[in-house]
Write the structure tokens for this entry.
Amino acid sequence: MLNFKRSARQFGSAAGAEIAEAALVLPLVFTLLLGIIWFGRAFNIYSTIQQAAQQGAITAARATCVTCTPGNQFPSKAEVQTAVAAVLQSSNLSLNQIKASASPVVTSCPPPAPAGGCTKTTNNIWVCRTVQLNTTPPLQCGSIVSFQYPFQFYLPFTSLNLQQVVLSAQAQSRMEN
């Protein structure tokens, strides 16, 4: 009878220890899993906005027609914004969340290239056309599209909870002659 009571006490204390261990470990595992999910989402958004910037740069750099007058041969900044919006919408990202940012630093192409410059669309997307893409001969002209997109983490019990990170996207594309 005495051995039975000692065994019962040992089993009772072992079960209590398992519950205490689970109570300590499960919140850590849960936070780790949430971190994996949220960092994965941040990477997905970063990849999407990079692809959107690349599509915008390709759209901005490609002439709409060969026989157009020199000033009207490239798509408007609204068409570039539409190309960016199409990629963003494919991942359920809102074009309206794009944050205002400073203009990218660019060098205009030397003549006879048309005058370039940077303009901002209504949704804070910078479109720079006929800019010099490299400094070594042969010089290449192209377009650059740049914007920033905010992302907010939801990681309870961490210092990252409700922290907003601004993801930047910039892409360039060479203009074809």
